[in-house]
Amino acid sequence: AEGKSGSDTCLDNEIWDNCVASYTDDSGVYNGEWKNNLPHGKGTHTYTNGAKYVGEFKDGKIHGQGILTYSEGGKDVGEFKDGRLHGQGTAFFTDGRMWIGQWNNSKWVEGQKFAAGDSAIDLIKAGADVCLKTDEVWDNCVGERTEEDIGTYTGEFKDDKFHGKGTMTYISGQ
Questions:
Q1: pTM for the whole structure
Q2: By the 8 A CB rule, do 145 and 132 touch?
Q3: Strand intervals (E) in 6-121
Q4: Burial level of 120, CB count in 10 A (0-12/13-18/19+)?
Q5: Which of 56, 71, 86, 123 is the most exposed place for a label (fewest CB within 10 A)?
Q6: What's the rounded Cα separation, in Å, for the pair 14 and 19?
């Protein structure tokens, strides 16, 4: 059932503009800022399917910085455009994988992909910066790099070298 509710600053207005209100419709409940009768600014939309978005809206759409948590437990964090992860963002998958980098219309473009259980995920969740392939020098960040004829290192980098916590998987299998 559709309806307006709460201690809203919009209720006395015919057009909801520059005010805060809750609104319920078939998609769920939106609580936040309004402009020209549309969600616009900061808000929260809790969907009937169990998903929840907390962040910025523009002209009635998810747009700007936010966190979209899916009902099955996955989560997208970062920049959104027209309801999709777009720009810098991180996807947390229910199986424990994490992809960080650039997104275009919810499709991963570039960055770092980390497997479930990867030690780098804990470092990143603790606040470490992610090394991007576009960075000239990897310094004070976490990433994954494959060295020809040696193996793959996942962990911390300083001055473009392996440094700190990390895991090296050698080609020889050691």
A1: 0.74
A2: no
A3: 19-25, 28-35, 38-47, 52-58, 61-69, 75-81, 84-92, 98-104, 107-114
A4: buried
A5: 71
A6: 12
- Within 93-171, where are the H helices? 119-125
> Measured at the alpha carbon of residue 100, what is the angle toward residues 45 and 33, in degrees to the nearest 5?
20
Residue 158 has which token pair? Answer: 């300083």
- Amino acid 77 reads V
Each of the 174 residues of the chain gets a pLDDT tens digit; together they read: 455 554 467 777 788 888 888 999 999 999 999 999 999 999 999 999 999 999 999 999 999 999 999 999 999 988 999 999 999 888 989 998 888 888 999 998 888 888 887 777 777 777 777 776 667 788 887 877 878 888 888 788 888 888 888 778 888 765
**Residue closest to 95 by CA, chosen among 77, 68, 113:** 113
Residue with tokens 């503009």: 17
Residue type at 58 in one-letter notation? K
Which two tokens mark 86? 């777009």
Q: Residue 27 corresponds to which tokens in the numbers above? A: 């998609």
- Residue 125 phi/psi, 5-degree rounding, is -65, -30
CA angle 143, 148, 117 (to 5 degrees): 35
